[in-house]
# Entry
Amino acid sequence: MSANPGAGVTTLKGVGPGLEEKLARLGVHRLLDLLLHLPLRYQDRSRVVSLSSLVPEQEGLVQGQIVDARLAYGRRRSLVVTLEDQTGYLKLRFFYFSRAQQNALKAGMYVQAFGQVRLSREGLEMIHPEYRTHRDAPPPPEPELTPVYPTTRGLGQGRLRTLTEQLLGMDWPEDDGTPYSDLRWLHRPPAQATAEDIADVQARIALDELTAYYLVMRHRQSDRTGHRTLALPQAEHLGRELLKHLGFRLTGAQRRVTTEVLEDLSREVPMLRLVQGDVGSGKTVIAAFAAIRAAEHGAQTALMAPTEILAEQHYLNFTGWLEPLGISVVLLTGSQSAAERRRVSEAIESGEALVAVGTHALFQNSVAFRQLALTVVDEQHRFGVHQRMALKDKGRLPHQLVMTATPIPRTLTMALYADMDVSTLDELPAGRQPITTTTVADERREEVIAHLAGELAAGRQAYWVCPLIEASEALEAASVEETLPVLESALPGMSVGVLHGRMKSDEKARVMAEFKAGRIQLLLATTVVEVGVDVPNATLMVIENPERMGLAQLHQLRGRVGRGAHASYCVLLYATPLSETGRRRLSVIRDSQDGFRIAEEDLQIRGPGDLLGTRQTGEQQFRIADLRTHAHLMPEVIRRGDALLSSDPETANRLLAIWAPADSGHAGV
Ligand code: ADP
Ligand code: MG
# Structure
């Protein structure tokens, strides 16, 4: 049967509305999408491993005859089936089994099973393997590697294998530019294919996918530069006024980046600029200068923060900086009363408020601005790469400033942010205290508490961060709930505040304000304090279970201290035993305070999901490309993408139609 790549998945046998909906969750709508839905990894079921050669942790296909099957009553009841082949024995263990399974797994039957071998007190075992029983010797194994697909709830591997089997039985077009033969090969590589063979084919396809992504970004860029918006050239000298009462001198980098931003604003072409700068490099004030420029024209600015805590903090800063210049600033948060929000919305609608600060979510509920000229998105990495801000003003695109403290390696920026201009703040304000970072094993917690008591007694403040809010059976990690009584009893006379994501926002804001005012000495928190929080008197950051966190996240957390005139410390209180990778990762944080270097390492060790914020948003960024393994393709992606744009638009459009059908019309921005 010949395949129509653009046909819907319901044209396949056995795909009804239910399955269609599940496939859609995986981004699979067309037959082509299913063909592009490639295995995450493979299992080798092509050869039978003899029982005597099995080693712990090995994954493999085994077969043998059942010599014994019985119920075992240990801590939990289980069904234990012993297999024998010519070389030895293996136990299969089932904690969950039906009566029918128990009846089928009888002495004398043959079993072919696939699973991972573990070492238990009773020797080698496979727990809950996939298996099939046979009356006679089992058939020969499959000649190909078995794919393991990315999947979603309610959709099993078996289902995905039968569906892709149907695709592989079809005739695909020959010459429409899609690498059908590579794609088909990746669904069922021959058993003798090596990991390198597979990686090579994947890289060829990843190059196409990344090129398509780059083309989308370039199209968005040219769409944007085709728009016209309100030009904001210098009108008054309010920026100079701010410089006078700022209380510090701008760093060279801040001056340079501010100039870049103000130059963009003075044009009719809508700005789209990413400002990246390490934690504490002073990005906020750059946004203030931009907002002042808009205000000089009587035009409005919307500043969006990822959390209420951060919105509140920006509001305080902006009020202090801008109100003396006669620019009215308002705050819009979910914890305000309806009446308060209405009052604020009215001030925005009438144009009386020139700067509105709030959380991202609030701006999505379409606040009507009188004349919105500029949007600022802080800590953009939280929102994912694809999801650009699209607050439009009566159909007109405002200037956009995006700020992030997550340094993105240059190779990635050039391709992934090809639609934006990028400024880098590569200098910290003078007089910043270096932060001494130490790694300490959990068993030495007493010493850490003693250090903490010393800092607090000296009038300083501290953070103590736990991964969990309350104790969990599933996860062995520190929780706020369990840690609170321990710290409270160890620190008599000190006020300990608690901050976590399950608290109401007004409660969070109250705790944060108390901490900022110095009425709370120790803030026991989850990673909600990760971004942007600025309390210069805090000098100690203790992080529990740092081995569970990403390096970029640890760097962010550490950046909460070292913001004032006092020496600061970060203690990574890890659980033992620490794996070799864990040790390596923590030593990267301990030995470096350079966000860019840490980001590069994170990319190597963990992959870019966290780096680019895709994990937080649950957004799957690429189907095949993995930026960790394919980052080196970027120069080629850019070269090829540029060449296609200038001399082969037909191929460019074909790539877009395959990989980004929604963007191939490239109408939106
Ligand atoms: P980030 O880049 O992490 O968003 P902030 O804008 O929050 O950094 O700035 C961190 C702190 O440094 C703030 O208290 C801010 O007022 C202060 N700051 C910013 N620029 C300077 C500077 N040039 N000199 C001294 N302090 C500065
Ligand atoms: Mg910030």
In short: The first helix runs from residue 17 to 25. The longest strand covers residues 59-73. The two ends are 40 Å apart (CA to CA). The chain is about 35% helix and 20% strand.
